[in-house]
Amino acid sequence: MEDSRIALPIGANLDRFIKSHESHFKYASGELSQLLRDMALASKVINREMNKAGLINLAGNAGSQNAQGDHQQKLDILADIRFMRALTKGGEVCAIISEEQDDMFLTGKNNGKYVIAMDPLDGSSNIDVNVSVGTIFSIYRRKTEVGTTPTAEDCMQKGTEQVAAGYIIYGSSTMFVYTTGNGVNGFTYDLSLGEYFLSHPNLTTPDDGKIYSCNEGNSNSFPDGVTAYLNQCKDNEMTGRYIGSLVADFHRNLLKGGIYLYPPYRKGPNGKLRLMYECNALAFVVEQAGGKATDGKQRIMEIEPTDFHQKCPLYIGSKKMVDRLEECL
Ligand code: P6P
After folding, report:
1. Which domain range does residue 126 map to?
2. 142, 173, 200 — which closes off a domain?
């Protein structure tokens, strides 16, 4: 029997893929390799701890709140620690903003040329009920001089300044999906080899779709245009799919086509999701995959940040679906 039928080729692993696409990253690819290696390492540790959280007393509430007043799960805190440590050890990152930290986290590595904005574990309240959760990250080049102490200016950059972004989804399989501005590539984690392997090369999202994702429990206070759009979706007998875990809802819609909506509502006049470490990263990914992301007034990545933790409404997914929503608004 011909060898190729016996020995199926293993896809490129993350490291090899980055090296073979180094022209895609306008800075030294070694720096990006190190950055993504650090992210991947932390994600492998979190994946392991999450898979047995119920057995090692890591499930449930930590009994604390983050600076935003969100109740922290034990794994929220653990994930934050894992990423801070891995990124600090890697030496490429001088500062990090995180949902779990009120202020900028300084790694002390002032020669690091990069800044990270991240949600270490988004949707973590779903862990106890075995629903997929995710890590979301944006990578920026620092603005201040290398060697100096980073400032807020380094961490408060528009989404268009991202040099890379992506997410890790801890689901039925664990996947690492990222872009450096030259398309989107997805890698699936092989636990037995401890590596991420290319499984979704040149990922693009369908131009249109039939899935809408929204927590309609807030619909009594949605803007009229959003209500009109949702009624259109129902008139067209589309499919409502809402997991309540942003990365899981986003990833499904990215692959199948669809729109995720988190509009303004009574308790959240700017919605619920955070610009710097949730919306910008997914906006970069979706645009690179051919989709669209807006806050209802402007492109998400054009929003000028004024606060590390600011919220913004989010409408993101297949271009034609977002276009129709904007017409309604
Ligand atoms: P709601 C999880 O807390 C999260 O940040 C996203 O992952 C998710 O899409 C959203 O909030 C769910 O919010 O109000 O529908 O429970």
Report:
1. 10-200
2. 200
Active site annotation includes 87: no
Domain-located, residue 147: yes
Ligand 1, pocket-test mutation among 68, 100, 215, 309, most atoms within 8 A of CB: 215
Give the tens place of pLDDT for each residue, 66-79.
877 888 888 888 89
Residues 193 and 218 in one domain: no
Which residue is listed with tokens 């004024």?
A: 306
Residues near ligand 1 (Cβ within 6 A):
122-123, 125, 215, 244-246, 249, 272
Q: How far is the CA of 242 from the centre of ligand 1 (A)?
A: 10
CA 6/CA 134 separation, integer angstroms = 35
Query: CA angle at residue 42 from 37 to 48, to 5 degrees?
Result: 125
CA distance 121 to 247: 10
β-strand partners of 73: 61
Using the structure block, give the residue that is written with the tokens 């109740």.
Answer: 71
Final residue of a domain: which of 152, 171, 200? 200
Contact 276, 308 (CB under 8 A): yes
Residue at 1 is within a domain = no
Residues 158 and 15 in one domain: yes
pLDDT in tens, 246-264: 999 999 999 999 999 999 9
CATH number where 35 lies:
3.30.540.10
pLDDT at position 206 over 70: yes
